[in-house]
Each structure stands twice: as C-alpha cells, then as structure tokens.
Amino acid sequence: MSWLARLLDRTPPPEQRMAEALAAWKSGNYGVALDLWAPLAHEGHARAQSNMGAAFLQGCGVEQDHAKAILWLRRAAGQGDAGGQRNLALCHYEGWGVPQDHAEAARLYEAAAHQGDVEAQDMLSWMKLVGGGCPQDYAGARFWAEKAAVHGSAAAMARLGDIHHNALGVARDAAVAADWWGRAARRGHAEAQAMLGAAYLAGKGVDRDPVEALHWLRRAEMGGAGELAAGFIKEARAHAKPAQRAEAERRAEEPLS
Fold first, then answer.
1. pTM over 0.85, yes/no
2. What phi and psi, each to the nearest 5 degrees, are found at residue 83?
3. Half-sphere exposure of 173 toward its Cβ, with a 13 Å CA cutoff?
C-alpha cells in the first residue's frame, strides 16, 4: 500500500478495534462491540470469531442462537483460539447446538488448558478427578488444579483441598488440605469455607478454634453452602460460648480481605 493509500485508509487496525469492542462489551454496550467484532470475524480474526460465538451462546446483543454460536466457535477453535476451544467444549459438554459429547469436551478443554486458559484448566481438572469424558486421573486432576490455582481459581484451590483431604493420588495431609481450603475460602468459595470451618471445629490441619469454625461455617451458609455446613454449624454453636458466637457472627459479616 502506497503512502497516499495509507493516508486515505482511516480504518483503525484490528488490535485497536478489538480493544474498543472489548471495552464496549465490558460496559454493557453489546451492540457496539458486535458491530466491531463482526467484520473482523468475517475477515478471519480468531478472537473476534470466538467473541461472536460467545455472544450468540449467551444471547448478549443478539438473540441466543446455539447453531450460530457453534459456527463461530468452531472457526475460532480451528485456528487455535483458547476461548473458542473452551466455549466449544462447554457446548459439547452440555449438548448446546451439538450432540452431548463429554469426550470431545475433554479434548477441547485440554487444548485450551495447554494454552493457559484458567477456566479450561479448572474444568479439565474436575473432569479428570471424576473420570468424566476421560479416564479418571488423580495426578492429572491435581496437575491442572495447581495450574489454575496459581492464576487465582478458587474452585481449583478448593478441589486441591479435597484431593489432599481425601488422599486422591497423594498421601492424606490435613494441613495441606486446610491451607488450600483457606485460600479458596478467602476468595469467597462457599464449599471451601464450610470445609475450613469443619477443619477448625475438629482441629484437623489447623489448631482447634470454635470462633473461626463458626465464622467460616456462617460464611458458607450465607454463601449458599448451607446444606454442607448445617451439621457442622449445629455442633460449632453447641461448643461455643455466647461471646464466641457473637464474635464469629461479627467476623462473618466483615468483607473478605
């Protein structure tokens, strides 16, 4: 392209259009984002294709359409886009727009996981732990959970607590389990909060502490893990003095730090 043609061509470069679209999407201006992504997707830009697929999958800015989502996600995944692979994996896992196929979901999650996609790493860890769509593999489950945990996945941290608590491919280690549950709990993971509370109640992996036990169990209850926490809460309240129960409630109401 000559210098004059470049001067006359005022179309922003793809990177700028992608950034503008992402900013619009995050602010809730889905139509603006899609107007920017659509031409790039048709031009073959993998991340734009992935984002178009996600929009049709969620029904954001467009009518929800699983068939169109699959079309765009396959194009993106075929070019190696991790987000496209992960969302296409979800479609295969749930049977959205394609026949349900957990083996294909696991394959796609693994492809995205190898590219550093944290959500894919977390899901692949869970699938390997339970043997869903792939052979049960405790070592693989722990490996991918650790990868996701490094990048802040609370679900992966909670799973690592369970792995060490239940001796799934590792020696049982109550202290390591409590440490992982604690990391997840401080990020708001309700099930991990329940398990951490139970650990403090029994003194397993941490010093027994009725206040901390009830504190974390109450957070779990308020966070949606009431069924898991229920039995432990009853016992914790029975062993705590009125002043300890009041202190636990106070802590449970404070923002997580």
1. yes
2. -65, -40
3. 14
